[in-house]
Amino acid sequence: MSSTWAEQPLEKALYERLRTLPGTAGDDLYGDYTTARKSVLEDIVEHIDSAEPNLTDHGPRHLADVMQRAYQLLNLGKNDLSPGEFYILCVSILFHDVGNLHGRTEHQKKIGGIYKHVRGTDARFLGERNAVLAVAGAHTGTTKDGKRDTLKTLDRQNFQGASVRIREIAAILRLADELAEGRHRTSAYLSNIGQYSIDSTIYHAYAQIVDYAIQPGRIAMTFTLDISRVGDKFEVHGVALSELLKLCYKRIIKLDQERRFCKYYCPFLHELAETGAWFNFYFEGYSLELDLHPLVISDLVVPGDVTNEVASVDADYDLTTLVPRLTALCSGGRLQ
Amino acid sequence: MNKYQNPFEYEQATTLPRDFVNQVFIEDHSFTRFIQSTRNVFLSGERGSGKSMTLLYNSLTFRESKKRTPVEDGTDYLGIYIACNTALTHKREWELFEDKDFPQIVSEHFMVLAIAHAIIQELTAVSSTYNLEAASELREDMEYILGQELKAGVPTLKALLLFLERESYRSQIALNALKHQEFRTTAFTFSSLVHPLLLALRRTEQLKKSHFLLLLDDAHDLNPFQKRTLNSWLAYRDRSAFSLKVAVADLQSYDFRTISGGSILEGHDFLVVDLQKPFQSPSSDFGKMAREVIERRLKVLGLNVSATDFFPPSQEFEKDLALYRESAQREAEALYPDSDDAKKRRDYVYKYTRSKYFQNRNPKSNLPPYAGIDTITHLSTGVIRNLLMPCYWMYDAVFSETSASEQNGIKQIPADIQSKVILDRSTRLWDWVEHSLASAIDNCTLEDAKRVYRLFDQLGVLFRDRLMKDTSEPRAIAFSISGWSDEFENLLTPVLNIARRAQLLYLRSGPAKDEGRRETYYVPNRLLWPIRGLDIVGQHARVSLRAKDLWAASNGTPFRSEGTSITQGGLFNE
After folding, report:
1. Which one, A2, A76, B130, B378, has the greatest CB density within 10 A?
2. Across the interface, which of B39, B262, B511 has its CB nearest the CB of A215?
3. What ipTM, to 2 d.p.?
4. Number of domains in chain A
């Protein structure tokens, strides 16, 4: 509920930036922002869970998390977003997932109708609408002609008499959304008692084990896997260990691609030179010794390198050897 | 009179003879494999947990004096022991400057001088082994890098030492004379002194394959700027030339931020090796290590005897315990007769055998006997120095009561002497808490000290009360804290921190009730409990106490048993 919404640092920064506008323009825009926020939180976002119960959390906590991630990304380098650009970023974050109210599939293309419901037909929101639909619509999915590069076709747009960099803003939102996956995006309780469909159990398990850190120079993914034995099988949060690790590897590569993709289009993100990943394995509360080194996928490309698989970055992570090593440790090998 | 040599010496490792450290150090259990790797490592553990000994054992000079095998003594890993509690690293001039960059420059300068000095000193001690003086290119390279000629007519390493000492003197003079600009332009950094020095050493034929292990001891004593500098080095990616092994007493309160405003992350930038072992049962790693520590030290005296034989348990206690085990077994069989309930029966016997012994003792009888290697191991609360201390005084007591002709033949510490020493040490610890805490611990007022005393006094009463009743986990002697609020955090945290600094209280981490989450819990030093008649073996559970009740207890209000609950740990949890 919006009554429990805590103002985010990004919103405070937005307010400060808007106050640099002449006259009452800043206060007016911030009022528009809070009006949209109230409507999105109360009328839309809270109903997504009932429309799509198998989705990981797309509720207010997710919005807050995307805002936190965007704030961290903006703080990486010199943030020279204009007040208008900052405003479009924040409003776009509010609307980026509202399409889920009508189902996950192609949700980024369903934002327009909901935007209209929130803002009505007031002509003064035309500029905002065009910008927000462009930014929020590019945070996932494909372009009209089926291409995955959703940022390439974006261009500057006018908002409040000034030109705003839509592509850069969309890149920030896209990466912030990618990074907003973590324990809060699922309900541990519902997952534990099996109240998610089998298809999405693995994604909820993933959301419980991953943590992201945005730091100068890198994005660091930390995975914490509490392995349990069920019969002769080894599981993490009800998912087979090897299946969950496969998903982790896919997400590492996906995040690295998103990092490279977004920084290509956004100078604020050039600081992010690498994606790091580290796995903490536990069995019955004990840390498992594996002598693994952290994975580092940097921008450095040596001719001949293949980095589209985790095992090609570090052979110790090859699942055909790693999973047997883990299960051997859980079956009585030396524990730390 | 025989020369007195107590094998259980428990002074700081830095004060012990190298040969003794080399003889008694237990390599297998001390994560040497992590130390001798290219990974950055934080060694975490309270005072007395073996941090310094682990680092010293892996240093070049200690390696040299052990005359290890060629495999062990390869030049691949060269350990450089760097104490962070020296005059150079402790210099506090940085506090005097308002210029925001200058304290950083001053702090790093003196720290890198200390590190470079340690590198040269360690290498000097082994220069003949590695024939470093034959490496003429080292002098040439360093003169070129430093832009100064080293003192002629003296060996290269000594010339480098003299240079570093002169720089230390020169920079101090510049600071004293407020010549900040001069200091600023000539100050050293890691990348202008230590790194080029390591690279120059690796260009010599003798050390070309070497990896330098910079072993920083007591890094919690570094100033905030030095910690940030150190963290920035830890974030350095190329670890071919060096890696950092950093010992700190309290990792939870360590500041991981770097100079650039980022922070270093566990796993990504460093590993953590926790030298404090939360589990003290005979089958745990710590239980095995404790036995090895004792036996290795007995071998120093030429005694080839097991720890169990040297510290035998009380026969009377073992006999009584066997009776109560049978009694608990009978009760368990009556309560859980089904064949599928074997685990429940085992758990019941485990939980209640010892508590029955304590509950059924005659109220007028003396305190129970505390003896045996298992008892001593539990008494240590997982800290090696706590393990050695009672052993030291037990050996001392037997030695002083033994005639001179038989002093070399001490084969055993009788159970009654063990018990007497343990009770005496327990009494002394309470006396120290009550009368000396304020003067022994920094920033501890008389009122703080009273609160600490009252808190542990009331904990003793609570644990005793639980032990003597048929509660679900009667032998729990650890606790977790619930109901934290800003108010009680501000009030209680200073009291707990003083208790931790005084090594009366240890922090541990264990699985919480919620799957996958870990929680911090607190284990009072078990040496407190013998004089209170408690069972120091404890059990796999912790009492959940409210922050407000702990605060009230520190002001003398007893705990209410009904205000507590129990967190049941797993098999290996306290």
Report:
1. B378
2. B262
3. 0.75
4. 2
